Amino acid sequence: MTDVNDLRDPMIALHGLEKVDHAYTIYYDETNNIRRLHVRADGLNERDPKCFVVAGVAHKGPTRPIPIETLRSALKIQASAKEIKLKHIASGSFLDVLATPKLTAFLDWLSNEELYAHFSILDPLYWSTVDIVDSILAESGEVALYPLNRPLKNDLYAILRHDYDHVVDVFQRYTYPDVGSARRREFIAEIQDLLVQRGSLLPAANRNMLHGLLQIAADLDALPFLEDETANVLIETFGPFYLERVSMLKNASHIFDAEEGIQAYLDSLRLMDGNRPLSNYRFATSHDETGIQLSDVLAGVIGKFFTYICLTGNNDLIRDRHNLSAQQKRALQLLAALLDRSVTENSVFAHYVISDRDREAAAFFLDQ
């Protein structure tokens, strides 16, 4: 049995979260769901893993009718289409999607219906590397470094992500994340070498701080999250990211798009809220749930946005932002307003497992 309060209470205290006990109805869909990420002899099982997104729409209180026919009419969707999907509204890259007038109509409609957006974003490669920093901090007990946890992870990821093929090569040679005690120092030395080679990617102060962290690691007797792990398994399931949603908003009703593996994962945990069983989620098919159809569109748009952010350099982001057409600017304004309104309603509606650089780049692009 799993008591969700054991999962949520530390996060509530750490971040000072409010409104976590409010009641909502929350619908979900996902995009870029590769289901697992493994290291193989020929590379990763997914060559270029994009940002995994589980996202959708939400509203206050219990389930209520959502007048989707007015949206179908506004979008001029043919009667033969049984349900609304992103493909009915837009296709292509994020910038292509912004250029589509139907997206503007969709976002306007969400606002008029007083629906919120929610999302959980995961960069699989970032998530796969954070255990390096967490291992060093946990074993060293250097309390002074704890506030630098995220900046250190961001800087390490900047060094590693600079050469995708080399990162995969490192994963392969060290059977990552099961580096093991025998090769621990060799592994850290190789990361140090990469820092020397790519140090120009970081400001001097950041470079020196990361170098100091790796020096600490070289003298440690263990790296706890890089030993006795399952070799070559970076992500076995995305189930914990669904669990985080169900746990943090335990008084909400969570309606997920049918996903057998995730349903089996959650069911196996036998969730509890203290002494009582917690059954605050269910799985449904999109043609039976209007909210899931809306979530298909929103998850797709948000997924395209964060994938674009993660793959695009800062100079190109500045150029693209400057060169947006009037239509693209209008759609971006509506998307930014929806996300701002949603996070103002409840900060838990936004959950990030991406680097600080990517969070800052996303905020820059959305800023009006």
TrEMBL record:
Q: What InterPro entries has UniProt attached to this entry?
A: DUF3800 (IPR024524)
Which source organism?
Mesorhizobium shangrilense
Query: What is the name listed in the Swiss-Prot or TrEMBL entry for this protein?
Result: DUF3800 domain-containing protein
